[in-house]
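I have been asked to look over a protein record a colleague put together. What it holds is a sequence and that sequence's fold in token form. Please read both lines and tell me whether the tokens look consistent with the sequence. I do not need a full report, just your reasoning and any doubts. This is what I was given:
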Amino acid sequence: MRMMLVGAGAVGESILKILQWRDQEGAWLEYVLVCDFERKRAQEVVEKLDRDDRFEAAAVNATEKEAMIRLIRMHQIDFLMDAAPPFASNYIFDAAYETGIDYGNMGTWSVPMEHPAYGPGIENSYEEPMTKYNFDRFDAWKKRGNMALICMGIDPGVVNVFAKYAATQLLDEIREVHVKDGGNLSVPGSDPDDIMFGFNVWTVLDEVMNPNVEYDASRGGLLVDRPFAGKEVWEMPDGVGQNTLVKVEHEEVVTMPRYLKQYGLQRATFKISLDESLITALKVIDKLGLRSIHPVRIGETEVIPRDVVAACAPQPGDIGSEMTGEMLVGVQCIGKKDGMDKSYFLYQAFDNQESMKRWGSQAVVAQTGFGAALAIELIGKGIWKDAGVYSPEYFDPLPYMALMDESGYEYHIEEMKL
């Protein structure tokens, strides 16, 4: 595999560290062009990889398709990994298609309407619904004989693999899947009013504040609700404890019905644990118009409000070493086995202190990077391969879970009472 990574941020760096560790001899990972908006950042990441000569740095603007195409052709790239902010994903996706190479990402871009209708029908609340741009181009990718694998981090990503595993190995019929993203990360001694962004600030402002979506076949399919709806208290295993979860927009509720309907799927939700201080801050930011992506003129200067907030907010990477606790991401799968109602919770937990020591990244970052890296390994080895546009549920989950076992990316399956 000759890979080009676009976006050398914290998660991109994590992916590369794990890939290097997984294939130290270059058995399948031949070369990686590490790209970022600033070459300096890409070079910093390359230097952290012990000057492994398989890795080379370059600068590219992820919204300039032609610039990416030139680099792909110049360096004979055959796989393009998107680790850039979501707003750039369609440009990167198209660059891969136009050069006839395979593509991967960890999430997709969506554009909500200024005045969402809410209720049934995602098309009534979104100008561009999540995953639509990608799946609408399935036939074109199929015809070219290339593969795009979208949504391959932790969630979406690992949880999608878990759901497919439950549908094919644990249950005779799967009726419901409910993704739960939480943990008990904290900074000892911090001010209780401090705002902590667990992942990329721009992404938080995007997906958390967008109208949330769930899937319910009995109510017509995709249902759209206001931000922070569906609050519930969920007891996380491994001593993580109670998490207060709310629904947010996330790709799993679109991709899982696409691939798991054949196994009986009727309902899918995604919920995440958000600190009350963060929720309050996000509501204020929204009401002040500061999550807008439309330029605002201030004197002689034009600024994008969301860019300003993302630049000024506390950055996830700045507090990694101070945090204790763990991230815990899983999916509850409900259905029938041998005529009996069954419920399983499949989850992956990542301890922050161990993550900082082993990978130099906080748990949120390394957990996502690990999920993506194992999917890239399966693509690089030709194990996950088909022409078209897919998400992880399409493929056999067993090779992925075998890599989890082999690499120590520990997971658990817990049977629950109904």
Q: What stands out?
A: Residues 105 and 388 are 14 Å apart (CA to CA). Residues 363-380 form the longest helix (18 residues).
